[in-house]
Specification:
alpha/beta, Aspartate Aminotransferase, domain 2, Aspartate Aminotransferase, domain 1, 3 domains, seven-stranded mixed β-sheet, four-stranded antiparallel β-sheet, 15 helices, 13 strands, binds pyridoxal-5'-phosphate
Length: 460
């Protein structure tokens, strides 16, 4: 046989392989320079930075370890899976799903509980725009419920907003404080509604001794850097309901990797539907795993700071403290009270700041803020994603007599209290001496403007 003929013999029949070794030089998958530019932000010592650089430069990560949470090349434990396992253990739930943001967690939850064309979800007038946005993303219509003096959804106003179109209520735990979950869940159960808890601002808080996020059917968390255990951008969904977990997973992971056999036909009617990709990255999961492990200590420090200050505050006429629905479960990174007038609020906030105590007061002419319903323009102006895709106009909604108008004045308590609150941000690292000085400073300032006594509600 000639050489040429032998070269043409198929490898299957004993001929030479056409390609038996790659000549190209692989490069690390993770860009060393890019990774180092992130690592350098964290204040590692030069020696530690050198070790990190060495570790990531040496490895050819081309087809090996990567930053995907479904890294099939090195099972069984990815950081994403470890994060979810820790979340299940911490909150005592059966299912946890790590996602890439609190907003995507809410979108997953809304889709999971059956929000869609022709449906409504009751959301609080104070919280954050993402809750209502997730309803619209699922093609439902958000209905705003006013708050009470706790700044949280007022359970006494809930029932009047329920219609045949309502499928869920989505209470938000706001600024480290806690919703009045007992009556909310009771009303929801009576009307066969699902409860989607938005815990983004109060992770680790408790109502009646039970973690927020476990009172409803499904709990949503943000782990963004703005939150108390924030890493960068991350989110979490928890539930005890297998079907809800499956629906949330289907929306979050369109690659089907959450399923025992990823590309198999549906195991039951409705299992599969159009999903997206909201996966949490391994890098984020690695950070969030550590952060979630610290949650209880972080909460305890904030809680102790706030309660130590509150216990020392005196009662003043013209000052109403924020109602705490469960002081024992309060996280406490904000201390809030309502002066009787805007003039008083502005004077008190300025005087507190002069004492060295950070204090915010929005007043009647504050800039737009998407934490209050009337400023949530992407919802209230009803633009949808495009004029032809607005849940408000869908035939399913109109055929069910759905109609909503959003305007300031719809939720008068929120309109008033959102503008008329003095807000003091607290620091988990305040020492007892710091707390005592701050409490004395608040008493000093309030005492300079308001007579003692006559307060309608107690600080605690
Ligand atoms: C109450 C509430 N829900 C949801 C979100 C959205 O979370 P993320 O920014 O992680 O999407 C936030 C974040 O600001 C929030 O405060």
């Amino acid at each position: 046989m000639t050489t040429e003929a032998r070269d043409q013999t198929l490898a299957l029949h004993g001929g030479p392989q056409a390609f038996h070794q790659m000549n190209g030089a692989a490069q690390p998958k993770i860009g060393v320079a890019e990774f180092m530019s992130i690592a350098e932000r964290f204040g590692f010592t030069p020696a530690a930075l050198d070790r990190i650089r060495q570790a990531i430069s040496d490895d050819d990560l081309g087809s090996g370890p990567n930053l995907a949470r479904y890294a099939t090349s090195f099972p069984p434990e990815t950081k994403g899976a470890a994060f979810e396992a820790l979340a299940r253990q911490k909150f005592g739930v059966q299912y946890a799903l790590g996602v890439n943001s609190g907003t995507s967690a809410l979108h997953c939850a809304m889709v999971a509980v059956g929000v869609g064309p022709g449906t409504e979800v009751i959301v609080p007038a104070i919280g954050y725009y993402a809750t209502a946005a997730a309803v619209v993303a699922a093609k439902g219509v958000p209905i705003f419920c006013d708050v009470d003096a706790s700044l949280h959804l007022d359970p006494t106003k809930l029932e009047a907003l329920i219609t045949p179109r309502t499928v869920a209520v989505a209470p938000t735990h706001v600024m480290g404080s806690i919703c009045n979950m007992g009556p909310i869940v009771e009303i929801a159960r009576k009307h066969n509604l699902k409860v989607v808890e938005d815990c983004a601002q109060s992770p680790g808080g408790k109502f009646g001794g039970r973690y927020v996020g476990t009172w409803g059917d499904i709990g949503c968390f943000s782990i963004s850097c703005y939150k108390i255990i924030g890493g960068g951008e991350g989110g979490l969904v928890i539930t005890n309901d297998e079907r809800l977990w499956e629906r949330a997973s289907q929306l979050a992971e369109c690659g089907g990797l959450w399923r025992p056999d990823r590309f198999a036909p549906p195991r039951y009617e409705g299992e599969l539907f159009n999903g997206l990709n909201y996966r949490m990255s391994e890098l984020e999961a690695a950070v969030d795993l550590v952060q979630l492990g610290k949650l209880d200590e972080v909460v305890r420090r904030y809680h102790d700071v706030k309660l130590r200050i509150l216990r020392q505050l005196r009662s003043f006429a013209g000052i109403t403290p924020q109602t705490l629905n469960d002081a024992a479960g309060e996280i406490g990174y904000r201390l809030v009270f309502y002066p009787a007038t805007h003039e008083l609020g502005q004077q008190i906030a300025a005087a507190l700041r002069a004492e060295g105590i950070p204090a915010g007061y929005r007043g009647p002419n504050g800039r737009p803020d998407w934490h209050v319903y009337s400023d949530m323009f992407p919802i209230t102006l009803k633009p949808g994603t495009m004029p032809t895709d607005r849940p408000f106009d869908l035939p399913e909604y109109q055929e069910r007599d759905g109609h909503v108008e959003y305007a300031k004045g719809l939720c008068p308590v929120a309109d008033d209290l959102f503008n008329r609150s003095v807000t003091i941000p607290l620091n988990q690292w305040y020492s007892e001496t710091d707390c005592d000085a701050i409490a004395a400073g608040i008493n000093k300032v309030l005492g300079a403007f308001c007579p003692l006594g006559g307060q309608e509600a107690a600080w605690l």
